[in-house]
Amino acid sequence: MPPAKKRARTYDAAKIRAAVTAQFGHVADAVRELSEEQLTRPSGVGVWNVAELAAHIAWIADSLATGLARPPAAVPELTAIEWPFATASLAGKIAEAARETLEGAPLPDLYERAGARMAGALAANPGSRVLDLWIGDMTLADFLVTRTVELVVHTDDLARAAGVDIPVERQALAACTRLLADALALKAPGGSVEVRIPPFAVVQCIEGPRHTRGTPPNVVETDPLTWIRLATGRTDWAAAVEDAQVRASGERADLAALLPVMS
Questions:
Q1: Per-residue pLDDT for 29 more than 80?
Q2: Which of 142, 143, 182, 221 is the most exposed place for a label (fewest CB within 10 A)?
Q3: What is the dihedral of CA 108, 109, 115, 116, to 10 degrees?
Q4: pLDDT value for 209
Q5: What CA–CA distance (Å, rounded) separates 60 from 81?
Q6: In 10 A of CB 42, how many CB atoms?
């Protein structure tokens, strides 16, 4: 008998909405305090400086509102777990759209406008609403889970580049960690390696002998932020292992060829 198909992870829609809203607010508060010198620093994300990265984060909220202002699509084409693999081809288009939408206004004004538009749009639409998106039509509930990835990853980018501390909502961090872990399991299905990211996620991946009881022979363990940096190409696997940010045991416990999960 073939193994049962694993049930897709579910998320608490109300908690995800609250986490997205709160995380955007944390970034907005931090951006308002940045100096001109901090804004001109390299962001570490492509060719953007910190100001351009901050504008992109504002666009994340603004574009959500714009998507909800369009007529709804009929049926979803993409789920949250599939989203990480569909993003790379649209990077240039997204960057250009963000530039066109947001250039010419001070960052605090952009954040105030984007936050207000997002709040109004979320209040007016249920999670079942299907958004017509470049990347593929998605329910609002699924798309909001992907927004936790965008916001947590870029919050970390911004904090490191500007040299500031920005709070990260626990629910946003949890959803981001889980989605990227599940994407790894989808990318490399199997049960020979157990990836542990306490306290938020445990997944099995990579073809090979399947573990059934006791301590698995192949284990990878790391913290949520290190995992997110690995999964998005911010941190190199070998460097993370050498610096003891990742603990890997077993001959199959090497994820280098599978990372980043998304870029």
A1: yes
A2: 221
A3: 140
A4: 72
A5: 19
A6: 12
Radius of gyration of the chain (CA): 19
For the chain, give the longest Cα–Cα distance. 63
Q: Return d(Cα 90, Cα 72) in angstroms, integer.
A: 21
Whether residue 101 has pLDDT greater than 70: no
Query: What is the DSSP-derived secondary structure letter of residue 72?
Result: P
CA-wise closest residue to 55 among 132, 6, 110: 110
Q: How do residues 143-173 score in pLDDT, each as one tens digit?
A: 999 999 999 999 999 999 999 999 999 999 9
What is the DSSP secondary structure assignment for residue 131, as one 8-state letter?
A: E
pTM of the entire structure?
A: 0.93
Nearest in space to 101 (alpha carbons), one of 89, 90, 112, 114: 114
Within 8 A by CB and 6+ apart from 27, the residues are 54, 57, 111, 151, 154, 155, 158, 166
Number of Cβ within a 10 Å radius of residue 8: 10
